[in-house]
Amino acid sequence: MNNSVEDHILKTIGCSKAYAVEKIQDLWSGYGSIERYRLEGFESETLIVKHVRIPDKKNHPRGWNTNKSHQRKLKSYHVESAWYEKWSGSCSKSCYVPHCYSTESSEEEFLFILEDLDASAFPKRMSSVGLTEIRACLKWLAHFHATFMGKTPESLWSTGTYWHLDTRPDELQALKDRELKDAASVIDQKLKDCQYQTFVHGDAKLANFCFSDDGKKVAAVDFQYVGGGCGMKDVAYFIGSCLDETHCEKYETELLDYYFSVLSNVVKAKGFDSDVNSLVETWRSLYPVAWADFHRFLKGWSPEHWKLNSYSEKTTRNVIAGLR
Questions:
Q1: Assign residue 171 a region: left if phi > 0, alpha if psi is -120 to 50, beta otherwise?
Q2: Furthest-apart CA pair in the chain: how many Å?
Q3: How far apart are CA 286 and CA 292, in angstroms?
Q4: Which 3-state string (H, E, C) describes the chain?
Q5: Same-domain pairing of 199 and 307
Q6: Contacts of 253 (CB under 8 A, 6+ apart)
Q7: Of the ranges 64-73, 107-116, 234-243, 258-267, which one carries the lowest mean pLDDT score?
Q8: What is the reported pLDDT for 66?
């Protein structure tokens, strides 16, 4: 940027002073950082700055240092800018997202000036959760999916999620599971052909939810891979991010029942012009398909990953068997 981050903050929100007080985290593959700034002369005492700086040398932690990977990341930040500029304002408090004061970009940098969710009653980050917190996240997803049901993802990813097949040919090529490799395009197409399309968050893992103190409310961050798709892609990915194989199987029905109960009520309240029972039946049948779709990516990208467990393998084998 031609001006400093502090200058951008002063220009954007009109405070008298802004200074960095804490680095929250580095961005994936060395593409910048997220920091907390303290303010003077403004209604909020702090805000968050996501500052993306394109590195001279790409350093992917798992070795995927290709131009394709780099271009995907670049597009993801353009998508995130579009999300905050055009779409995030449609989200209600039931699918809370941080207010974006400003987005700025140049050839080599992106700057997002965002509400500090810690100061907005979402101070907790959790690495392990119980059913209360899981339901809170599923409720957020249900409201999010209902909000964007049937919308065209203009300026976002036409197909959301970071693992969808069109953007992951290298990982597919590396996949050694021949049966899954042969089924990959059919699995992908089943999700694309679903008549009920919405926006998916695209990276709805536990780490991207911020919790209230009691764990009953959440807000979500990180919208680099938001785009069109079947909501089950978010739901399967989220559940897999916080439960082990035993609990994925044990709580599958209970958690899906809860998600669909909330989704049904919200889409009805929003005047959904299609059969809600058909939506639920269609999406529920695609839950294992969405699981298999992510399993395909993960098995090619990181064959030793902890999420590649017996539940995931069994679900995927059942999906493949159903394609015959």
A1: alpha
A2: 66
A3: 10
A4: CCCCHHHHHHHHHCCCEEEEEEEEEECHHHCEEEEEEEEECCCCCEEEEEEEECCCCCCCCCCCCCHHHHHHHHHHHHHHHHHHHHHHHHCCHHHECCCEEEEEECCCEEEEEEECHHHHCCCECCCCCCHHHHHHHHHHHHHHHHHCCCCCCCCCECCCCCCCHHHCHHHHHHCCCHHHHHHHHHHHHHHHCCCCCEEECCCCCHHHEEECCCCCCEEECCCCCCEEECCHHHHHHHHHHHCCHHHHHHHHHHHHHHHHHHHHHHHHHCCCCCCHHHHHHHHHHHHHHHHHHHHHHHHHHCCCCCCCCHHHHHHHHHHHHHHC
A5: yes
A6: none
A7: 64-73
A8: 66
The domain total for the chain is 2
Beta strand 109-115 with 46-53: parallel, antiparallel or unpaired? antiparallel
- Residue 37 has φ and ψ, to the nearest 5°, of -115, 140
d(CA 6, CA 13): 11
Region 97-109: mean pLDDT is: 91
The pLDDT tens digits of the residues spanning 246-287 come to 999 999 999 999 999 999 999 999 998 889 999 999 999 999
Domain endpoint, select from 120, 145, 170? 120
Domain holding 309: CATH number? 3.90.1200.10
Cα torsion angle, 53, 57, 61, 66, sign: positive
Domain containing 253 equals 121-324
134 and 277 together in one domain: yes
Residue 110 has pLDDT above 50, yes or no: yes
Residue 2: its pLDDT value, please? 46
